[in-house]
Amino acid sequence: xxxxxxxxxxxxxxxxxxxxxxxxxxxxxxxxxxxxxxxxxxxxxxxxxxxxxxxxxxxxxxxxxxxxxxxxxxxxxxxxxxxxxxxxxxxxxxxxxxxxxxxxxxxxxxxxxxxx
Amino acid sequence: xxxxxxxxxxxxxxxxxxxxxxxxxxxxxxxxxxxxxxxxxxxxxxxxxxxxxxxxxxxxxxxxxxxxxxxxxxxxxxxxxxxxxxxxxxxxxxxxxxxxxxxxxxxxxxxxxxx
Lengths: 116, 115
Description:
Oligomer: heterodimer
Order of helices and strands of chain B: EEEEEEEEEEEE
CATH class of chain A: Mainly Beta
Number of domains of chain A: 1
Radius of gyration of chain B: 14 Å
Number of strands of chain A: 11
Distance between the termini of chain B: 41 Å
Number of domains of chain B: 1
Number of helices of chain A: 0
Mean pLDDT of chain B: 93
Shape of chain B: globular
Low-confidence stretches of chain A: none
CATH architecture of chain A: Sandwich
Largest sheet of chain A: 7 strands, mixed
Number of helices of chain B: 0
Low-confidence stretches of chain B: none
Mean pLDDT of chain A: 94
Helix content of chain A: under 10%
CATH superfamily of chain A: Immunoglobulins
CATH class of chain B: Mainly Beta
Strand content of chain B: over 45%
Largest interface: A-B, 29 and 23 residues
CATH architecture of chain B: Sandwich
CATH topology of chain A: Immunoglobulin-like
Number of strands of chain B: 12
Structural class of chain A: mainly beta
Helix content of chain B: under 10%
CATH superfamily of chain B: Immunoglobulins
């Protein structure tokens, strides 16, 4: 079946620009997560959605980062006034339910963001 | 706050060699532990997980891991590696408390298996 789909797979933007990264989770998965993986690091938690609402956005680095999931399915991560330090692979994952044992995360291939 | 430490940044082995990748975690409560694998050009995939019960967990492709609570460790093992095991391996922990949806990952270990 279809997995988690992320678009674009690569995004190059200039410093100061605005970008949107899209995640299409597995159908029926109510929980959606965004992680960020910088070079040489493991994925770091950014935000968790349960349905349409952001249940935990404590991992967002600052107010330039924002994410939405208006219909409880597709999610968009938005980054304003991009900085070179935002360059990383942004990973999206979904699970059938959130916070429940035995509900594994399914990851997408990620969007590689490069800010020049 | 929970944290995960993976001791080896890059491990190079020949085929048929035995593998052990170290993972230590820091968390003050009950934990769930995971190993994820990322093959070249592919997404992160779950290799195995520990929630409770038998501390020796078997996963896919002949991998296993042992949870040693007293050492806060969850090392990954495989008796005989293959070239196709070349990948990056991530240990991760999830607390069982209020943030039980949040995975904390280690920095990863790159495994290169030479034919």
